[in-house]
Each structure stands twice: as structure tokens, then as C-alpha cells.
Amino acid sequence: MDSSLDKGEMMISFTVKARDVRRLTNSSTSHLQSHFLIVPFEQVPDFPNDINLRTTEDLNKAPRETSVYGQLTASILQKDPWEQDYFYLRNKGIVAIASSVTPVEGGERNEFIISMPENWGIIDGGHTAEQIKKHGQRPDGSWIDECVIIHIITGFEQGNENHEKIIHQIARGQNTSEVVQLPSITHHLGGFDWIKEELSNTSYSDRIKYSENERGKYIDVRDIICSLSCMDISEYPIKRVDAKHSILSATGRTALLQRFVNRYQDSQENGNLSEYEAMRFILADVLRLRNIIAKDAPKAHNALGGRAGSIEYIRSAKSKTIEFPFLLPQDKNNGDKIDSGVIKAKDELFKGPLYPILASFRCMLEKDENGYYRWDRDFEEVIEVWNLAKSEIMGHIRVRGKDVGNLPDSIAKSPSIWQTLVTTVILTSGTFRNFQ
Predict the structure, then answer these.
(1) For residues 314-326, b (16+ Cβ closer than 10 Å) or e, as one string?
(2) 280-293, pLDDT tens digit by residue?
(3) Which residues, 6 or more positions from 102, have their beta carbon under 8 angstroms from its beta carbon?
(4) Which pLDDT score is estimated for 62?
């Protein structure tokens, strides 16, 4: 196998000698062709992985022995004699997009040149290709005598916007059987780019998990989307009666992620501003407010005579402390600690009551002339509204919480709690004008 690069056309080529090859064409899409090659491990080309939905970090991670990829490695290494010769049937293979598959002029039988733009290549089977490269050779340098099926799809035009969209849809469909999570797909399509940009200068930007299997990142992007959904004044306008609330924030974050994706795709197709991206200028504030409420609500609960460690909707770390990464140093108060620049506390309000409280502060939001969300006052004044209202808010949570057994999920599913809390914040903030 060898490769060459034509820098002028941004094309790369690979020479592959297959054991056998078949070509299929569907009459309804006759411009496309599927080439199926049975390729020895030694001949597997080093295709680009840019289109594959799994990240380079995913591909380079050391697989657990019991994981799908640990089993893949074991399969390549052929730990049992009966496994020999059947890898190409046990494995899904590799699927790639290329410009052409042409016989080598004067070459051997089933010897082909596969050409593609640099940004094309594998759309599924990246782990298979990676593990073959890592484990396909024996310690003496010889290759294990096994094959893998490579499916090459040709006929798409580079730079054709519709074709590029179809390629991404194919990548998404091919990966479905591998249970690639929706965050990975969204990340691949660029749906989270504006979030990355807006949070790039924060201390927690490198802790956010945008795609499947990212290591050392414990802030799930779905929780960020749930927090923003609480502030969606288009989806959840503030009404006196028949109000609609973002209950899904606490009970259905996958559904909200799908809404995020749908709105992103609509914005890409129609050129309009996604309702989520319209919140980009309040994003860091919303996350900070979320952490302030989660940290300070248990203290307000205790001030009312409660015991944070004995109530179901408050998490108590007991001997340890809980991190609140979205906070600024000035958000530290009595009983809090700062470790490596991160504020920590003993107790935390669970998401069940947290999201109804957070959503109540959408009454202080409005849109500018370009459709972007803005606070109707300085954000420090928004925090002051919380400080003024937190005792009353937690009083409502205590009373209404008893009606549903103090269970976090039951609190989140109670529309009356959401309505009571937003009314409280409206009265405290003086935003009656937003009541429809």
C-alpha cells in the first residue's frame, strides 16, 4: 500500500491489492457506486478519519477487555485457533467515501488506486482500521493472515453542498448500529461550535464533554442544553394561566438535545438564528446562575429550619465536597471552600427543584433587535434577585415538595411548582410587564 498527495487538487491516493472485489450500482442512484473489497490486513490503507463520527481521542483510547473494542482487539489477535480466517465475517468492516476506485494500469489482478479529497475517507469502522494498524502485525513484523471488508462509495462531487449533506447523513446512518450517541453526531456536524466559542475563555471550557467517550470531562453538554432550555421564552412564554414549562429539562434531556439538533439543522438550511444560539450572550451567566442556586439553596433551606442532609431533593457530600465549576470567586460565601480556583460546598440542590427555580429567572430576559437574548438589567442585579427571593423560593419548595413526597423528579413534574416559583421571581424582580 502506498499513498501520494497532489497538493494542487488536495487529493490523496492509496494503492490497495485486494483478495477479491465486487461493484454494485443502484439504478435509482446510478451516479453512485459501491465497491466491496476483501483486503488483507497488510493492505488496509491509512484512510483519513475526518468524516467518522467518533473522535480521534475515542480511536486512540485503550479499550477495556470487556468493551466492544476490547473484543475487537482480541478478535484481531486470534487468541483461539478456531478464530483464524473468519475476521472479515465477524467484523462489520470499514466504510469510506472516495472519488474513484480504478485498476492499476499494468498492475496485478484486483490491484486498485483509491483516490479521495483529504477531508473524505472513513465514515464507519474507524476503530477497526485503527486496531488493525495497532495489532495486525506480529512481534516479528509479519502480518496476521486475515482480511477485512472495505466498502468504498464513489460518485459524490467534492464541494457539492447537497452531496456533502448526504455524506454526513450516510455517516450518521452507518454509525447507528454502533449506538453512536447523539452528542457525538451533533459535535461532528458543528452544532456545538458556538457553545465552544462562547465558553472558550472560561476556566471550565476544557471540562465539557461534547461527544461520546471523552475522558476526564465531567460536564455533560446535555446539561448545558437543559439549562438553556429553561430560559427559552419563545417555547415557554410566561403566562398567568395555561403556562407551559420546561419540565423536560429535568426529565428528558435526550429529547431536548434532539430539539437542539433540529433547530440547528433548521438554522443551517434556512439561514435563520437558532433559538439556542440566540442565547449565546447569556450562556455563561445562565450556567453561573445555575451553580449559584444549586449551591446556595441548601443553605436557604437550612435557614428555614430544615436539614439539608435529610431531605430527598438535596444532595449532601458528607465527608467530601461538591464542585461548582461555573462560579466566579466572588460567589463564595460562608461555608464554601476554594480549591484550585473552583468553589466547593457540602450540599447541592438536585436537578428536580433546580430547573424550576432557574427557569423562573427567564422573566428578566428580552430579545434585542437581532434576536439575541439579553438581561433586562445588569447580571449582578439578577443575582441579587435570587438573594432576595431564595428564602421564599425554598419555602415554596418545602411546602409543595411535601405534596409529592419530596422526590426530586416529582417536584420537577409538578406544573404548579414551576408556576409558583416564576410568580415569586416576577414579584421580586418587578417584571409584571412580561406576564401574558
Answers:
(1) bbeeeeebbbbbb
(2) 999 999 999 999 99
(3) 112, 113, 115
(4) 46
Give the Å distances, CA to CA, from 352 to 55, 205, 223, 245, 383: 32, 25, 13, 13, 21
CA–CA dist 5, 46 (Å, integer)? 13
Asked if 297 and 315 touch (Cβ cutoff 8 Å), the reply is no
Say how far residue 321 (Cα) sits from the centre of its chain.
27
Residue 284, C-alpha cell as written in the block: 455563561
Q: Is pLDDT at 223 greater than 90 in this prediction?
A: yes
C-alpha cell at 92: 462489520
Using CA atoms of 217, 257, 356, 290 in order, give the dihedral in degrees to the nearest 10: 30
Please state, in angstroms and as integers, the Cα–Cα distance from residue 108 to each residue in 19, 105, 188, following that order.
11, 9, 39
pLDDT band of residue 64 (cuts 50, 70, 90) is very low
DSSP state string for 210-253: -STT-TT--EEHHHHHHHHHTT-TTTS---SSS----THHHH-H
Regarding predicted confidence, which is higher, 435 or 179?
Answer: 435
Q: 79-135, pLDDT tens digit by residue? A: 555 557 788 888 889 999 999 999 999 989 999 999 999 888 998 888 889 889 888
* Phi then psi dihedrals of residue 26, to 5 deg: -95, 125
Asked if residue 369 lies in contact with residue 260, where contact means CB atoms within 8 angstroms, the answer is no
98 torsion bin: left (phi>0), alpha (psi -120 to 50), beta (else): beta
Band (pLDDT 50/70/90 cuts) for residue 188 is low
Strand duo 208-209 + 219-220: pairing? parallel
> Quick one: cell of 350?
438536585
The CA-atom distances, in angstroms, between 338 and each of 232, 253, 325, 331, 344 are: 32, 30, 11, 10, 6
pLDDT score at 77: 56
483486503: which residue's cell? Answer: 39
Whether pLDDT at 395 is above 50: yes
Specify which residues 168 forms β-bridges with: none
Distance, CA of 167 to CA of 96 (rounded, Å): 10
**pLDDT single digits (tens) 12-24:** 999 999 999 999 9
Exposed, middle or buried: residue 275 (CB in 10 Å: 0-12, 13-18, 19+)?
buried
C-alpha span between 425 and 436 (Å, rounded): 15
**What CA–CA distance (Å, rounded) separates 323 from 300?**
19
C-alpha cell at 357: 427555580
Across residues 159-166, what is the average pLDDT? 78
